[in-house]
Amino acid sequence: MTILKTISILTLSSALSYSLFAQEAPAPYAEAIEAIKAVQNEGEGNEAAAAAWKQIIQGDATSVVPVLEAMNGSNGLASNWLISAAQAIVDRELSNGNALPLEQLGAFLMDTRQEARARRLAFELIQRVDPETAQKLVPGMINDPSNALRRDAVAGLLDEGKAMVEADKKPAASIVYRQALGAARDIDQVESASKALQELGQKVDLPKHFGFLMHWSVIGPFDNTERKGFDVAFPPEKGVDLAGEYDGKAGKVSWSRLATSDDYGMVDVNKAYGELKEVTAYAYTEYEAPNDQPVQLRLGCKNAWKIWLNGELVFARDEYHRGIRIDQYQLPVNLKKGKNTLLVKLCQNEQEEDWTVQWQFQLRVCDATGTALLAANRLPTPSSKQTRARNES
User: Phi and psi of 176, rounded to 5°?
Assistant: First the structure.
């Protein structure tokens, strides 16, 4: 059976098929693998791991898949050791003119239960020795749970769309670019597909693609003199009452609406209160989940912040102006079916430099691959005009 035929079968039933090819590491290597998997931060276990690595790399080509399989459930440090070991084995075997176990690598690649980096390496090994087969596999990875594998398929669609535009097949190009956008998870590819669609006169709803939360209620400013406000439990932390009025830093404060039309969901608190310093504000929204489900809250923020889900503190970061980027913080949580509440605390410090003026955040809800999980009560993404009208009302 050729590797391509084998992989085609695996695509239909990867878990069952993988069991046909899976190999257990020989006992000496199994012990060495466990030694590597035991490595921890601060150098704990490094000496044993180094000795185990030297033992593992003596294995032949049949050892590669068991080493890759061992990455499943390993911590980041152990995975680095194991990837290095697999690569060392491959380099030696190929330099000696020996073949790699392509069918086993293909079976491993198609088993989506395996660790993403290990599956990516399996693909690269297939690509290294059989580029034609590897290229034929790429389109089938368009919805792969591993973004590192999905990326190649999206890149192929982007190239195809570009060729269609150059051939003056713009309607077809729009379809291909729309497929690329739907599958893209890496920011650069999302931007490429979005730009291409817009150049073809197509509308793109990036906030919906990412799952950014665009509609909020905000209250403030409360005090943050000498950065003390971060640890102070102002009234919203004790319970959100959208009709409530409280003592703020410079008088009474109450809740108001704040929406954003920013493509990347950036909520600018300065638009509600001006460019203030040594202050604290809160942003609140409700998310209707169709089911109980694990999700990731992905936050970008350059100010000190705390976030609560359903009244329970999820995480906090007492740090200012260290930069901001999409998905800067990835917080695994569990939503309950029905209404879920999200409260974000945002502290601005005393620094006066131009680059410290920003008082903003972006928050989205997605799965572990970065695929948006949209709330049942999600409102349409507002236009700039709608945002102004809403914020001024």
Answer: -65, -45
Q: Are 301 and 361 in contact (CB under 8 A)?
A: yes
- The pLDDT score that the predictor gives to residue 279 is 98
- Residue 26's CB is within 10 A of a number of other CB atoms, namely 13
Q: What is the pLDDT of residue 30?
A: 84
Q: CA angle, corner 365, sides to 362 and 368, nearest 5?
A: 120
Residues 6+ apart with CB under 8 A from 190: 181, 184, 206, 209, 210
Rounded to whole angstroms, the Cα distance separating 18 from 27 reads 21
Q: Which two tokens stand for residue 131?
A: 């580029």
Say what the pLDDT of residue 388 is: 57
Residue 17: per-residue pLDDT = 40
Under-70 pLDDT residues of the chain: 1-28, 385-393
> 6 Cβ partners below 8 Å, 6+ apart?
17, 103, 106, 107
Give which of 285, 276, 286, 281 is closest to 235, Cα–Cα: 281
Return the number of other C-beta atoms located less than 10 Å from residue 27's C-beta.
8
Neighbouring C-alpha atoms within 13 Å toward the C-beta of 342: 29
Pairing outcome for strands 279-289 and 338-348 = antiparallel
All domains in the chain, ordered by first residue = 3-141 (no CATH), 148-204 (1.20.58), 210-392 (2.60.120.380)
Structure confidence at residue 13 (pLDDT): 37
